[in-house]
Fold these 2 entries.
Entry 1:
Amino acid sequence: MEQQKQIILTGDRPTGRLHLGHYVGSLKRRVELQNSGEFDEINILIADDQALTDNADNPAKIRDNIINVVLDYLSVGLDPEKTTICVQSALPALHALTFYYMNLVTTARLARNPTVKSEIQMRGFADEGLPVGFFAYPVSQAADITAFNANVVPVGEDQLPMIEQTREIVEKFNRLYGKTLVLPKAIIPENETQRRLPGVDGKAKMSKSLGNCIYLSDTAKTVKKQVNGKMFTDPTHLRIEDPGHTEGNVVFTYLDAFCTDDHFAEYLPDYKNLDEMKEHYRRGGLGDGTCKKFLINVLEETLSPIRESRAKWEKDIASVYDILEAGTKKARETTNETLARVQKAMRIDYFGDRSIIKEWEKLLKEANK
Ligand code: TRP
């Protein structure tokens, strides 16, 4: 292959609207990468087939949420002129690649994937029985990444085992069949709280069923309600004068992830920065109400432009459809090319030309000698 281009591939399962955890954990970074001008190609895959691996009984949920995910992408500033947005199920090359890669991975190796392991527990598959498709989804993710020739995969921390597994598949493929696939690397957010934003109740993950999310599409009123009504602070901080804890205090965790010094100048000029504010909270004399009010202002700075943009796109769903269709068409070309290269490397490209006729004739002649 010619010199490696800088190519990004990342994706999401379309199982619901995207929330603040997605935003700080990946969407914000994607927009920065998109606008950095450092990449030749940026591809974002809506992984509907992967979503089906644990939603086979409810394909309508996946179908309905595709539009939500595209709207979330467009409203955070992903620009279809610069970023290709596409749908996995409409890219048949991904299925074929998955089938070949499955031969390069053992079930023992899949069973060791820590993310899959915990997901199996969470979804109750340990008791109910484990669908083969779900068990093997890391292999299909390797197909996603390699089909786009991606060398950079921006993801959340929980996805690191998938990239590791992809790298193993790439190395094995290239060793067996000759250098064909690009070896990818993951990049994850630098800021630790951005990597793992807890739910408003302090639980490790935002999840729809726990009702502890703040969605990018939530109204200002809902955001306020989630913060004022549900967000955990410090249970030992009973009166304003009491000394308080900032560690494990969800309001401060969110401030760690979202606030900048400029926010203080604008909304809470009593402090220069978050360190000063935390110091006061620990000392005593700073009330939770003040902290929450500030946090709401900070969150709204991120959320209100996203909300406005979403409202505009929602009025023009036909254009959203066109963007997705055009992106998918482009992705189909890219992924088909990779599949052709893979089949050629494996020498299973029987019908590219008729040269195999000669090979077969020669084989028969030798056998019959
Ligand atoms: N597994 C990812 C998630 O749950 C989604 C995904 C599918 C993905 N294919 C991908 C991420 C390829 C990065 C690259 O968030």
Note: The first strand starts at residue 7 and ends at 12.
Entry 2:
Amino acid sequence: MNFKDIIIKKRDGLELNQAEIEFTVRGISSGSLPVYQIAAWAMAVYFQGMSEMETEFLTKFMAASGQVLDLSRVEGICVDKHSTGGVGDKTTLVVIPLVAAAGVPVAKMSGRGLGHTGGTIDKLESIPGFKVDLKHDEFIGQINRIKAAVISQSGNLVPADKILYALRDVTGTVESRPLIASSVMSKKIAAGAKGMILDVKAGSGAFMKNKDEARRLAELMVKIGKKLNREMVAVLSCNDQPLGRAVGNALEVKEALDTLKGAGPADLTELSVILAAHMLMLGHKFTDFAEAEAWVKKAIKSGAGFAKLQDIVSAQGGKLRWEADDYGLGTAEWVFTVTAEQEGYVRNLDAYALGNIAMNLGAGRKKIGDIIDHKVGLEILVKNNQPVAKGQDIAKIYASSETSGLKAQRLFSDAYTITDSPAMDEPLIWDIIT
Ligand code: URA
């Protein structure tokens, strides 16, 4: 087979067959195809799209391009969760212990943050001693013992995606529905769980800025997952403003712990409860959603979810001071405030801008390999449509230096507006696809 012919076929809008897609994926993961040809192919896909059948083949061959996790020794129906990424999204830290507390096993492989969004592994590494690399036997053993483990994505999981994603990132071809769907779903399929919930975000802080695009992506991923014998649910949620109040690793861990104690922000609590309840349905613990939801709320009230997170942290070597206000996570040296210059209602808190401010403080990476500062970030005290008085604190900035803190303070002032009246609150969860 000649890869140039495959590129031309796609460029001309024709459907690739199974053999051509298999050849492409093999060539990407083996390194036998030159990057300029892969980039040209990705651009052809970007403009011409792919049929569902092509996307399904692409997902399947990408998933099989490296290690496939064997969860056959896990007792029970293993469930997984994936977020397409948003600012302030720490739901994994809340949801996993709640699901595990109900006895449904969660084998979670998570990623690191890149750019304006954070990653669960970076958040967990703000816990002193927390190990994110467990051997396969340790991983399975911990899941069977306490029903959950969270590890960093194995280097050999879906190597084709690693190469393709890095190329897409620098060739303007990330924003392609079939390429995003196959990238996400191949990793989820290789990670082995039977039931999956996808949190597909739309808004300024998300990949998909537009709700229609997010819905079409969610529908495509649910279809592909079902064809590959997975039980699937997608929750469509909004990330125009950050989720919760905290943006930055240690600050987000603290907020997740507070949420498990019933003292978290309303939006983070609402989304976490819905995601966890659907995961309990996917794990066949409940057949009635209202019962699942009631169970999750009770597990927050009783502290069962918080106790389960303590188990997970201890099992993975993490050391926190559970009684301390900051759980022993510590905070950055410099703290600045952003204050309201007039009275009114906060509007248009821009998740993308705030995510970038946090990244520039050191909470995220501009490029792979950058070192994270776990203690820096933002605490948003007043969210969209809430009233403020002149001079009231709207946010706190936690910085490692005076210079970076003052810069963040200046930039934060351009990332929201104050108006005379509030707008209608956008629903946080705007649809669920099953
Ligand atoms: N997340 C992924 O894993 N892949 C994409 O292509 C986009 C977001």
Note: DSSP finds 16 helices and 13 strands in the chain.
